[in-house]
């Protein structure tokens, strides 16, 4: 952006002296035409105030144009600019500086909202007034006709440059809007993707503990059994249940009960490896799948889990059921989970009368 503001309109439009001369040829504007306008210059500038007055009298009769002009200060500035333009038209010098001013006219007209139809209408009015001034000032009809024809070529030459910047400015605005729309679309796309990921996480994870929920756990267990069959490795499943969790809620309140569930989930993560699968199935029931772990490894895991849990809260007692499958014969996922659940209930029944701070663990193959 900074580099663009350091360039002139000529540079931005990639217009140089060669392009200017090429356009003069394109419109048939010759040195003779420049000379004809120079010869007519005294006759036009001698009536410059009258020409400008007549031009704006006709322009302000058009309600839309009068609204665009708006106030006396704007009118004053427009009159000064129009006097300068007419002076330039009959100067005989149509170089890069002249063209740069024409380009600026197009840019200004676009920025203030002057539609092309109003510019062309104004140009037609100015042409007619200047023709009349030339014809009145030059008694030689041939010379007057030559000057009028030269003026027409120059006005066409000017209009092409005016429309170059007008269109360029319009395209730039469209590009800016397009870029803004693309940025908005990308932002919206990122937000949708982020929200989709959040919803995916919510749909697969327990909101309280962040562990997998029952549905996601069932899918993960099925995939892990398929992988274990391919690699002929064992799998251990742990089914964990908090003893007398209802009593915890009743005596300490549901908020403390939720905190206990969250704490147990944290301890389970701490005891686990990165590839272990952890889930809260509902209520106070948790599960862990330990890939590549046999009965001995499962017992070691339970010991580590128990020690960590007691280190956090000795008043919280749990029962853990363990069942292993593989590496040759494999139980189906539902069967494996059911058997681990059964061993957990057997353990809970055997230790129902145990002290509240005793944590019972049963490891069964």
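-> sequence recovered:
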């Amino acid at each position: 952006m900074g580099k663009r503001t350091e360039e002139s309109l000529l540079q931005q439009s990639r217009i140089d002296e060669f392009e200017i001369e090429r356009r003069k040829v394109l419109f048939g504007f010759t040195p003779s035409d420049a000379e004809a306008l120079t010869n007519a210059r005294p006759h036009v500038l001698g009536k410059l105030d009258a020409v400008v007055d007549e031009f704006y009298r006709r322009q302000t009769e058009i309600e839309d144009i009068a609204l665009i002009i708006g106030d006396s200060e704007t009118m004053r500035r427009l009159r000064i600019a129009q006097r300068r333009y007419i002076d330039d038209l009959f100067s005989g010098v149509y170089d890069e500086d002249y063209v740069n001013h024409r380009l600026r006219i197009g840019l200004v007209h676009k920025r203030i909202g002057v539609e092309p139809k109003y510019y062309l209408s104004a140009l037609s009015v100015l042409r007619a007034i200047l023709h009349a001034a030339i014809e009145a000032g030059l008694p030689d009809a041939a010379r007057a006709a030559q000057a009028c024809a030269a003026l027409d070529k120059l006005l066409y030459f000017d209009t092409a440059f005016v429309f170059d910047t007008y269109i360029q400015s319009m395209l730039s605005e469209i590009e800016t809007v397009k870029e803004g729309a693309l940025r908005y679309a990308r932002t919206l796309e990122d937000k949708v993707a982020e929200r989709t990921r959040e919803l995916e996480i919510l749909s697969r994870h327990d909101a309280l503990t962040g562990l997998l929920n029952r549905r996601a756990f069932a899918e993960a267990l099925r995939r892990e059994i398929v992988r274990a069959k391919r690699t002929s490795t064992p799998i251990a499943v742990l089914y964990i249940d908090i003893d007398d969790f209802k009593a915890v809620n009743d005596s300490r309140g549901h908020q403390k009960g939720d905190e206990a569930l969250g704490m147990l989930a944290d301890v389970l993560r701490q005891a686990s490896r990165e590839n272990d699968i952890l889930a809260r199935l509902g209520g106070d029931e948790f599960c862990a799948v330990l890939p590549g772990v046999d009965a001995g490894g499962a017992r070691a895991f339970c010991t580590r889990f128990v020690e960590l849990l007691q280190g956090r809260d000795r008043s919280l007692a749990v029962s853990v059921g363990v069942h292993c499958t593989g590496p040759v014969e494999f139980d189906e996922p539902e069967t494996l989970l059911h058997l681990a659940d059964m061993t957990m209930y057997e353990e809970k029944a055997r230790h129902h009368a145990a002290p509240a701070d005793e944590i019972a663990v049963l490891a069964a193959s």
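The CA atoms of residues 74 and 116 lie 20 Å apart.
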